[in-house]
Design brief:
The chain has about 220 residues and is α+β, with helices and mostly antiparallel strands. It is elongated. It is built from seven helices and twelve strands. Strand 9 and strand 10 form a beta hairpin. Bound molecules: adenosine-3',5'-cyclic-monophosphate. Adenosine-3',5'-cyclic-monophosphate binds next to strand 5, helix 3 and helix 5.
């Protein structure tokens, strides 16, 4: 009964969602009878990391944040999502617990689709399945980019640590010490990365003014 009343509104909402742009009218109408409209106030947790997955959600109005707890208990924001975006699909697809938490950043209105209805729809509708795969690919690409910039940051930090530990002789610059300018390959072998990555890190550190080359020596800040 509630679902029938919602049918018309849901149909309109579904049409406006890019994910369903390739779904035909008849199927969209069937879908509009399956989705349940739900509202969550600001700050409410909609999906909890580690919980079993039951529904996926399509945002009609409002904004949410997708977060994950790191090993030291800090919250990392993975993504901010808004109207037209969807979430909660991963645990339905792989039958594993929720990968992250999703919290309302404002009052939020969503359409919720139960696991079996979502999976049936994907099996029947290749356009929809393709749209979901495209969105998952976009997220994976974003994570790859973050991981590579994070590991590059770590190489920079490890290079800094190594050079600071090795710098013993005093310079005329206050707060700086000198160390023999190792080859990039030597640094790479010592911190366990590739020569090319060290070359990029050294360039970056010079550009930032952290590292100065003085002939065959590097001047680096004194270790605190
Ligand atoms: P699920 O694992 O069911 O529950 C948490 C949801 O957060 C997950 O499905 C995705 O919809 C969403 N999510 C997890 N990781 C990311 C990410 N890196 N970017 C965007 N959304 C994500």
């Amino acid at each position: 009964m509630v679902q029938n009343q919602l049918g018309r509104d849901a149909m309109r909402a579904l049409r406006a969602i890019p994910l369903f742009s390739g779904v035909g009218d008849a199927e969209l109408e069937a879908l509009s009878l399956l989705v349940i409209e739900r509202r969550f106030p600001k700050h409410r947790t909609i999906v909890e990391e580690g919980a079993p997955g039951d529904y996926m959600y399509i945002i009609c109005d409002g904004r949410v944040k997708v977060t994950k707890l790191s090993g030291d208990g800090r919250e990392k924001i993975l993504e901010l999502l808004e109207g037209g975006d969807f979430f909660g699909e991963m645990s339905l697809l792989d039958d594993a617990p929720r990968s992250a938490s999703v919290e309302a950043l404002s009052d939020v209105r969503v359409l919720a689709l139960a696991r079996n209805d979502f999976l049936d729809l994907l099996r029947k509708n290749t356009n929809l399945a393709f749209a979901v795969v495209q969105e998952l690919t976009r997220r994976l690409r974003q994570i790859d980019e973050q991981a590579s910039s994070l590991s590059f940051q770590r190489v920079k930090e490890r290079t800094q640590g190594l050079l600071m530990r090795m710098a013993k002789s005093e310079t005329s610059d206050p707060g700086r010490r000198l160390t023999q300018a190792l080859t990039h390959q030597q640094i790479a072998d010592m911190i366990g990365t590739s020569r090319e990555t060290v070359t990029r890190a050294i360039k970056g550190l010079k550009r930032e003014g952290w590292l100065e080359q003085k002939g065959k020596q590097y001047a680096v800040p004194v270790e605190e």
